[in-house]
Amino acid sequence: MIVADKAIEYVTFKAGDEYLGIETLYIHRVVEEVNVTPVPLVPTCYMGLMYYRGEVFGVVHAGSLLGNSEATVGETPRIIVLKWSNKKLALVPDHITGIWRVEDNKGGKASFRFQDYTVRIVTPEEIWEKVSGLSYGPHEV
Amino acid sequence: MGRTSIKNKLILSFLALLLIVMVVVGVVNRVANDFYLAQAISTALALASGVIFGSIFSKSLVKRLNDLSNVAKQVSNGDLSKEIPLLSQDEVRDLEEIFSLMVCHLKGMLSDMKNVSLQVQETNANLTQLTKKVLENSQKIDQSATAIAKGSEEQTLIVQKTSLKVDDGLKEMDEMLKQSADTVSKINEARHKTETGELNARKTLKHLEEVLKQMAEYAQPIYRLSRRVEKIQLVTKVMDDIAQKTDLLSLNASIEATRAGEIGKGFALVANEIRDMAENSKHSSQEIETLVKEILEDNKAVIEALSRSQEGTNKGREIIHGIVATFGEMLSGVKDIFLQVQKIEEVTGKQVQQMRGLLSYFHDLSRLAQANFVSTQKTTIATKDQEKDMKEIVNAMKSLNTLSEKMIESQERFRLSAGKETASLTATNGAR
Q1: Residue B404 class from Cβ within 10 Å (0-12 exposed, 13-18 middle, 19+ buried)?
Q2: Residue A101 phi, psi dihedral angles, 5° rounding
Q3: What is the dihedral of CA B264, B267, B268, B271, to 10 degrees?
Q4: Given an 8 Å threshold on Cβ–Cβ distance, is B254 in contact with A9?
Q5: Over the stretch A102-139, which tens digit does the pLDDT of each residue have?
Q6: Rounded to two decimals, what is the model's pTM?
Q7: Could you report the per-residue pLDDT of B204-234, keeping only the tens digit for each?
């Protein structure tokens, strides 16, 4: 496989009734089998707190935050751990579909076709803003 | 004092008189000096003594005969109260004694006659009462005989009707006996069929046991296969977990490679390959899992089918067990019924015989009732005849009563004694 210089890789996942993609640059790790401790008096999409390798992450359900679905997860969900610009957040998708390499996204497309479905590209900041817009949003680290 | 006849008495008296005369003559002869005078005086004295002696002697004899004659006259007049004095021991005494005895016998006879008459009257009265009772009883007998005759007639009718009914019952019992014999035959046939059915059910049960055994043997590999497939499923799950982990690892490796930039491109390539391999492995494990699931489902379906078949066979076995038991019970019941029906047949046969005997008795009873009817009619006639005879007896008794009254009247003409016999007879009558 020939990799172009300007190529960007996106981790694609399903959140509610749509597919989303986040650039792998913002993804610190994809983990599973991690205990999420529920926090009282927070919005339903905010699933709680997660401790991973010496750090505490706020865990948010991607479907209910971005895809207008209920905050339900499987038995061992995979959690996308995001870290960017001194900010950190853990995102729980319905399921991760894979990594998609886009050779050149000069036009700044907001979505692209991946396999048989359309993937909307989201940035961590966008997610952060959404979370901040909630009644009790996360704070900067 | 000994008995002295009149002749001897006369001789002795004469001799005594002669002695006295001779003494007197002797005295006279001694006193008188004259012989002739003495003879004359002696003759005169002798004649005078003879006359005196003769008159005294004849007077005493005539007096006694006159007394006897008077008593006889009084007896002839019915007065038996007079008694004859017995003073001497001569032939007149015999006559007096015989006469006294005759009077005494006559008294006794009259007393007996009176007693007999009274007894006849009493007996007549009793007989009259008895005759009345006999008449009443005869009437009652007549009534009873009439009732018996009526009863006998009704009895005859009832007996005849009963005989007809018994005869009908006998016919029905004969029919029943025939049906019982048919039933016994059919029950016997049913018993044979039940025995055959039980035998067949036992054979079926034996075959079913063999089939079950074979099915259990056939099911063992399937169970083993199921266990092995479950193990495969576990292995597949492990493979799937490994693939998942590999996928996650490759995902993170890709992310790390991306973060490494140009240096991590080779690593990203490897990571991609690994992710593809993990994906393939995941797909393969999923396919295997799908196949295993299908195999397990099929196996489960086979096991379920086997189980259902086994359950069905078990149920069939239970049913056949039940059928065998039912056949056994049926056989036992049929045997019992057979014995009972045989007993019923025997009892019915005995009943038929008894009914026949009863019918014979009824015929005899009918004959007896008819004979009884005839006898009672004869009894009625006889009682009527008896009534007539009794009336004649009553008339005869009335006549007898009249006769006895006449006899008493005749007897009452005799006066037995001054007061003794009359009082005794009156007392006797009063006591009676």
Answers
A1: buried
A2: -95, 120
A3: -150
A4: yes
A5: 876 666 677 887 778 889 999 999 999 988 887 655 54
A6: 0.44
A7: 888 888 887 887 888 788 888 888 888 888 8
Contact assessment for residue A18 and residue A67, using Cβ atoms and an 8 Å cutoff: yes
CB contact under 8 A, A29 and B269: no
B247/chain A closest Cα distance in angstroms: 9
* Residue owning tokens 């049926």: B330
Burial B237-260, CB ≥16 within 10 A → b, else e = eebbeebbebbbbbbbbbbbbbee
Radius of gyration of chain B (CA): 76
* Residue A30 to residue B275, Cβ atoms within 8 A: no
Give, as one character, the DSSP assignment of residue B250: H
Find the helix packing angle between B420-431 and B91-260, rounded to 10°: 10
Query: d(Cα B7, Cα B325) in Å, to the nearest integer?
Result: 142
Q: How far is A27 from chain B (nearest CA, A)?
A: 7
Residues whose CB falls within 8 Å of the CB of residue A30, separated by 6 or more in sequence, listed in order: A11, A78, A79, A80, A81, A96, B248, B251, B252, B255
Asked if A123 contacts A39 with a C-beta cutoff of 8 angstroms, the reply is no
Closest CA to A66 of A130, A7, A137: A130
* C-alpha pair distances (Å), B109 with each of B105, B116, B410, B423: 6, 10, 13, 17
